[in-house]
Amino acid sequence: MDAFWTWSLVVVVPLLLAAMAGAHELGMGLHARLMRGTGAEDGGAGSDEGFILSGVLGLLALLMGFSFSMALNRLEDRRDLMLQETSAVGYLAMLADALPQERARPLKADIAAYGAARLAAAEMADGPERLAAAEQAAALREPVAAKVRAVLREAGAKGGGGPFEVALAKAYDTVEDTAVRRQALTQAHIPPRVLWLLAVYAVISAAMLGYALAGARARHRVASSTLYLLVALAFGVILDLDRPRAGAITVDQAPFARTVEAVAREAAAP
Length: 270
Fold this sequence. Notes:
Elements: H1 3-6, H2 9-35, H3 47-96, H4 101-122, H5 128-157, H6 163-186, H7 192-214, H8 221-241, H9 254-268
Helix pairs in contact: 2-7, 2-8, 3-4, 3-6, 3-7, 3-8, 3-9, 4-5, 4-9, 5-6, 7-8
């Protein structure tokens, strides 16, 4: 079931294309075998056959469209969460400026270290190393949480927190929430059974198209091969969109990187 995320697209796309081309030839051979000895003459696909073929190809297009839309929506969700985390980290660092300098500088340094670890994990390819980097980043979030809790405790000891403490707590909560959601979304994929169903349906559609074209005297191998190439490429794009870091279509981390660099410079400034 994990083959779609472990195999290279350079392997998956040609395999699907070859399977569809083979199914096409198989469908043509099956038609010739069934018609042999029946006395039926080739002369174009019948209307019933054409209606069935139109329905099959229409359903294939619908399944491809739904899968593409699902993968594209996940990409947009990952981009939105990256921007939300960027804003949250920058806002938390800005709130730190309201603290005394002896407390603001260590808090900003911890925020910068955490942000750098989050950036490193986000730029890694999918795999155990990325999960380990994400866990390391989560561990670096604890010093930030400890300093925020210390500010809230001091405010509580003085008779309750004001607007600043409320904003500080919400900012840290947003930082933690977006990190957890980004990690969960990174590990979320289109269900593998859906991808297998889509691939198998594409192969079956190719076989039915070959069967229908065998009833016509024109084989249309160039046109059908072009169709299969387009379907295989579309399937490859769906897989690429569903691979957050392993594919060619990824979320640009530049806004998050710039924010982390800015916080690090502020923390290191005299």
